Amino acid sequence: MSEVAKVSNRPAAAVALRLRGATYQDICDTLGYETPGIAQREVEKTLAALAPPEDADMLRSVMDARLEKLLLSCWRMATDPSSNDHLGYVRTALAIMERSARLR
Question: Residue 11: which of 43, 33, 38, 36 has the closest Cα?
Answer without folding.
Answer: 43
